[in-house]
Write a structure and sequence with these properties.
By secondary structure, this protein is of the alpha+beta class. Helices cover 31% and strands 15% of the residues. It has 11 helices and 12 strands. Strand 1 and strand 2 form a beta hairpin. Helix 2 packs parallel to helix 7. GO terms for molecular function: oxidoreductase activity.
Length: 356
């Protein structure tokens, strides 16, 4: 249990609760959920510029990371087809993957296919079910993809000024503006209560909020004097109780509640808002193909990790379809902007390619 780990090392309840957020981030789980301690460790895996467990902003926004990978690939001769939706994986008579078909009718032939889509899209939508073992299909259908995340992107005309650390007169970013700011995290019981409300089909009345201001480090993201604020909030159920849907009214009611919470910590925040973009779990699924809005393509619980990710006997990136590999967050070791699944899958694919 995460609570036991934190209680062993720390005494301060606000510190424990703030650390606990990384154990439940993206997970429909509470700090009291068995196995939640692993997700905390997962978030400090690896290193950045020689610093173990460090995180960083991507200059130019997260899209710049995709562009950097794309440029590296094209420099080695890769061809990238953007905005070209794949509708199915092409299979030969022997069931071997032979490329992909695009929605516009184009067929792209290849000896190997690597899918960065979720296991659900890859195996339940892009492959005919009769080509897959029944127990494998059932396993993919049963993957727990519940997600509590609603992402809110905000444009503001000034930096938020927190009661605990007011802004200076010149309005320049202070050290805390350049970090991850955790709100409604005074104690772990608050997080548990927020989780409990969501399990009953209601958005949390006091949601867990992780607030980042990337423009404080990367001014090019916003006009001079203005900033972009990224709000990663929990807990919001994918399916609301009483048959209600995430319509515009429900989205705005929840976002207003989030903004009211921020206002308590940083008076004047609501008045500084120029515009906002609210992405609930159904929005994240529709726009980005995340199953149930899950940023990890499936829960990072202990029953869905290691040899069981995405399914027992298929944790090594190969799939039941010869020549088709899974290389996204749904593969081992799971989600996070670290590229481990992609790197590992590429090495397996290269090894197989040499024998074709």
């Amino acid at each position: 249990l995460l609570g036991q780990i934190l209680d062993h090392w720390f005494e301060s309840e606000p510190l424990k609760a703030t650390l606990a957020t990384d154990a439940v981030i993206g997970a429909m789980a509470s700090p009291h959920t068995p196995g939640s301690g692993y997700v905390l460790l997962h978030h400090v895996m690896g290193e950045l510029d020689g610093r173990r467990g460090a995180w960083g902003y991507v200059a130019g926004g997260m899209g710049a990371l995709s562009q950097a990978i794309a440029h590296a690939a094209t420099a080695r001769g890769a061809h990238i087809f953007a905005e070209k939706a794949v509708c199915r994986v092409l299979l030969g008579r022997d069931g071997q993957a032979q490329g992909v078909a695009l929605q516009d009718g184009t067929e792209v032939r290849s000896k190997l296919v690597l899918s960065n889509a979720s296991p659900q899209i890859t195996f339940l939508e892009l492959i005919p079910q009769e080509q897959l073992p029944k127990d494998f299909v059932q396993r993919i259908q049963q993957v727990d993809t519940r997600s509590p995340v609603t992402k809110i992107n905000v444009a503001v005309d000034r930096l938020p000024s927190f009661l605990a650390a007011p802004n200076t007169r010149d309005g320049q970013p202070l050290p805390h503006h350049q970090c991850s700011i955790h709100l409604n995290c005074e104690d772990t019981q608050l997080l548990h209560q927020a989780f409990t409300e969501a399990t009953q089909g209601r958005p949390s009345s006091r949601p867990m909020i992780e607030l980042c201001i990337p423009s404080a480090l990367d001014p090019g993201l916003a006009p001079q004097g203005c900033h972009v604020v990224s709000l990663f909030t929990q807990y919001t159920p994918s399916m609301l109780a009483d048959g209600l849907s995430w319509d515009e009214q429900a989205k705005n009611v929840y976002a207003d509640m989030v903004f009211d919470c921020i206002e308590d910590y940083a008076p004047g925040f609501k008045a500084s808002v120029i515009d906002r973009d609210i992405l609930t779990p159904p929005d994240l699924e529709r726009i980005f193909g995340l199953p149930s809005g899950n940023i990890f393509h499936g829960g990072m619980s202990l029953d869905q990790l290691y040899f069981a990710r995405p399914a027992p006997s298929y944790s090594g990136y190969r799939s039941p379809v010869p020549g088709l590999y899974l290389c996204g967050s749904g593969a081992h070791p799971g989600g996070g902007v670290m590229g481990a699944a992609g790197r590992n899958a590429a090495q397996v694919a290269i090894k197989d390619f040499r024998h074709l």
